[in-house]
Amino acid sequence: MIENVEIIRKDIKNIYLVVNPDCSVVLKAPLSVPDEFIKSYLKKKEFWIEKQVKQFKEFQPNCTEKRYVSGESFNYLGKSYRLKVHKSEEEKVSLYRGYLHLYIKNKEDVERKKKLLDIWYRSKAEEKLFEIFNKHYTKITDNKPQMAIRSMKRRWGSCDFEKNKIMLNPKLIEKPKYCIEYVVFHELTHLKYPNHNKEFYNHLTYLMPDWEWRRERLNEN
């Protein structure tokens, strides 16, 4: 596992280790930290890394195997919903009575079913993620940042400090609301502290004392 870690040296003060949703592992370290220290640090974190990778692998495998047929499970805001596919001239997706309903002209057209669901998920992401962002950004700054939805393979969110802008991954719409809030607070905190230094984590803890628990749930679900 340690051999597969991407090590990036930057002008930062602290070591930052992350396991991304695609199971890649990245360690960012200060320029002055010796190689032996990094090896020792990764050795201590080996069990944690393996645990995170395992959790992502358990969550993700079915994502590439969906056939978009009735009975399959799809996640939305932390809950799992069974899909019901209906033949219909009017094509749409709706969520009601505990099921995710997909209406489509040709029930055998897998690509069309996938596209309809992707459009529905994207629209819900734009609605709910902006709603959460607008509710909480004033707790961190009076200068309203820009917020955008952007597909990202390795991150749940990102922050452009210079442009006063944060980006959120639309896949977050599948996660519980408290996990989305954690990502929003995390990225907004970067507008005050660009790096993952002590001040950053102190401020994040002040704003959200249980952020570590939320982060763990984000990686588990």
TrEMBL record:
<dbReference type="InterPro" id="IPR002725">
    <property type="entry name" value="YgjP-like_metallopeptidase"/>
</dbReference>
<dbReference type="Pfam" id="PF01863">
    <property type="entry name" value="YgjP-like"/>
</dbReference>
<dbReference type="InterPro" id="IPR053136">
    <property type="entry name" value="UTP_pyrophosphatase-like"/>
</dbReference>
<protein>
    <recommendedName>
        <fullName>YgjP-like metallopeptidase domain-containing protein</fullName>
    </recommendedName>
</protein>
<feature type="domain" description="YgjP-like metallopeptidase">
    <location>
        <begin position="13"/>
        <end position="220"/>
    </location>
</feature>
